Structure formats: C-alpha cells, structure tokens
Amino acid sequence: MAYLPRRSVLYMPGANTRALEKARSLDADVLILDLEDAVAPSQKVQARQHILDALAEGGYGHRELVVRVNGFDTPWGREEIAAFAHAPISALCLPKVESAAEVQAVVQLLVQEQAPETLRLWAMAETPRGVLAIDEIAGSHSRLEAIVMGTSDLAKELRVPHTPDRLGLLASLSQCVLAARAHGLDVLDGVHLNLDDEAGFVQACEQGVQLGFDGKTLIHPKQIAAANQTFGPSEQQLAQAKKIHQAWVEAEAQGLGVVVVDGRLVESLHVDEALRILAIGDALAAR
Hints:
The chain is an alpha/beta fold and about 290 residues long. The protein has two domains: about 10-230, TIM Barrel (Alpha-Beta Barrel), CATH 3.20.20.60; about 235-285, no CATH class. The protein has helices spanning about 15-20, 45-55, 75-85, 100-110, 130, 135-140, 150-160, 170-180, 200-210, 225-230, 235-255, 270-285, and strands at about 10-15, 30-35, 65-70, 90-95, 120-125, 145-150, 185-190, 215-220, 260, 265. The chain has an eight-stranded parallel beta barrel with strand order 1-2-3-4-5-6-7-8. Strand 3 (about 65-70), helix 3 and strand 4 (about 90-95) form a beta-alpha-beta unit.
C-alpha cells in the first residue's frame, strides 16, 4: 500500500521570497505556495513569478508542492493555471469551489495546456454552497485528489464564532470527510488562527484526527511539529498495527477468518487499518 503523508500542510505566501526560501528547510509534509488570500491584488503577477522562480531553483526535497491559484473567474485565475500547468508541482489548489462544473472547467484548461496527468487538483470547501455540493465536487473528475477545509471563510459565511470545540463547524467538517471518503480522496482540516494558543492548536489537531482528517493546514512553521505528531502514527500505534498484521497472516495460514489480539477481536477491517498505519510509517521512515 503506497501512502503519501499529509500531516502538516503549510501555506506559504507567494509574494514573500524569504518565506519561499525558508520553506526548503521546514519539516512540513506539504507546502501550499499561495497566490490567493496571502497576496494583495497589486502583487499577484509578481508573486506568480516568485513561485515559478523558486520551483525552477528546486531544493524542496521530500515536501509535496501545491500552488493555490486564484479563482477561475478572477482576473488572474486562468493565467495562473496555465502558468503552472507544467511546473514541478503535485497539484493546484482551487479556492472556494462550489460546483463540479468549476473543477471540470479547470480540467478543460489543463487539457488545452497539455498538462501531464500527474498534475492533480485540490478543492477548497469554504462556503455554504460548496459544502452543500461537496459530494458532487468530490466526484467531479479523476484529477481531484483532496478536499481542503477553508474554515476561516466558512465560519464567516455561516456566522459562527471560532470556539475551541468548533461546534458551529462540526456538521460541515463531517460532511466533507464523508464525501472525501466516499470518493477515495484525502481531506485536510482548516487552520488554527491563534498562534499563541499552543494548547488550543493541539486540541484542534486531536479533534481533527477524531473527525477523520488526514492532516491539518497551517499558517506558521511553529505549528508543524504538533501537527506531525498528532496526525502521524505513534510508536505504540505502529507496534500494535504490526502485531495485528502478523497475527492475521498466521490466522489466514490456519484458515481462520478472525483472530484475537490482546483480548480484542480482529477482523479484516481492522487489518486494513493496520496496513494503512504501517504504510504511513514506512513512507515517513523512507525519508
């Protein structure tokens, strides 16, 4: 089972060349090089070139690279998509997606630009309409591989406060997790805005794991370590997963369909989860 860890997904402003340079040394799984929210309208074109230059220089190592472009119908969206169609990145991140048609329009442009099939798309769920259409969006095209929660914009649109339990966002968060899992996509939790609230950030990460997210989007490098630790498997989890898999292999050799490990019944569904955890551990160890 191949697995690409996306525990920590850090937004980096494309207009800030120092940030783009520093990103080469950060222990984030994913870098989203941002042309949207983090860049003023007057700096959009210059920021695009900054990112293209940084990508051409390289040096980002194991870090998965994603570019968040501006909306398709903004003055910059189409040009940005075309500009990065052949860039050395994994995906384009599309903001404020509200329909399958929006994803398909981007795909059509990528086809026109003869972008490689390996260039994937990530869709952000950050409006009520987008969340309501998330199942349609998640199944819109085979290039789509991840749903990203934009909880700041979503909270504003829903008129809900940013509380530690995120009560006003729970329905939207769970709906997006359901859609992602139904269509075999990864799903990434939204950002935590208070950089001085370390305990609250850890709590939000733990809640994200409990809700089923694969990782968390971040706004500052100081958040990387906690996200990696919380969303990554612990040594205890890896050891237990290995024990479950080994017991299952032995049970299958005896023609058994179930096995007991440490007093708990283990079936094939538990083995699948154990294999997923081991695959994450293998991917991280390979670095």
